[in-house]
Design goal:
The protein is α/β, with parallel strands linked by helices.
């Protein structure tokens, strides 16, 4: 575990794998921390795997002001700079996928490839996120956690004892940090930038995703030149938790196909 000090606070990050391997930077979803990628650490051990907690999540600090999606992208690039990583494969789920898209928009020269899991170029509306923020402020995340989990996971994983861990994860997330990232999502619309993505891109959807339905994910994939799209049957919004073996297989096959990058 390591911390990078920034002008707004600190970013918690962790490195695994091979120091000289191809850098793979993982960007987590709303309401999770870097542990959502635990199931990928062993299968991606041949890469330089970097995981980080975005602002207000896990062991990272919560900034006073709500960040924009550009701020969150620059945080990820700051971690890359700190680790002397010039170019990386950016793997993002949900808001993490939007952060990865924004990195491709503002710093395409830094992107070896993209893996966009269960995300879209525009998620929700300003009104829906304002409602979510108000609910966080009035009810708190512990009261919301079970409903969040129902959107996140398919029925099989929801029936598994391990699902309880992620209910706790959501409930314990910093309320201000969560709301701040909701505000970032409310203001983010990257649809016009999708046709400009030039890096090899793998898009992953889950058949039971209640947050970014597979149709929405596939619509994004269709707008990215040459993107490869895969659907994981039975998975919900965070397949890296529900089906890590399948996600790892898709990523490793994809990266092997594009070793030239």
């Amino acid at each position: 575990m390591h911390a990078l000090i920034c002008d707004w606070g600190h970013i918690h990050y962790r490195e695994d794998g091979v120091a000289q391997g191809v850098p793979v930077i993982c960007l987590n979803s709303l309401g999770t921390d870097l542990r959502m990628w635990d199931g990928l650490v062993a299968p991606l051990s041949g890469y330089r795997l970097v995981r980080m907690d975005k602002r207000g999540h896990g062991l990272s600090a919560t900034s006073d002001a709500a960040p924009t999606i550009t701020d969150l992208a620059r945080d990820a690039l700051a971690v890359a700079d700190h680790l002397c990583i010039e170019r990386a494969v950016f793997v993002g789920c949900s808001i993490g996928g939007m952060i990865a898209q924004e990195i491709a928009r503002i710093a395409p020269e830094r992107v070896l490839a993209l893996v966009l899991s269960n995300t879209a170029a525009k998620i929700g509306t300003e009104e829906s996120w304002a409602e979510r923020i108000a609910t966080v402020e009035t009810q708190g995340l512990p009261a919301m956690a079970q409903g969040v989990i129902e959107r996140w996971f398919g029925p099989t994983f929801r029936a598994h004892p391990d699902c309880a861990l992620w209910v706790t994860e959501v409930a314990r997330t910093d309320a201000k940090g969560y709301a701040n990232c909701c505000a970032a999502l409310a203001g983010a619309d990257l649809r016009d930038a999708l046709p400009e993505i030039s890096a090899p891109t793998l898009v992953i959807a889950g058949s039971h995703d209640g947050a970014t339905p597979p149709e929405q994910v596939m619509e994004m994939a269709a707008a990215i030149p040459g993107a490869r799209a895969e659907l994981i049957e039975g998975a919900g919004h965070i397949p890296a938790i529900e089906a890590p073996e399948q996600v790892a297989r898709l990523i490793t096959e994809f990266l092997k196909e594009h070793e030239r990058v």
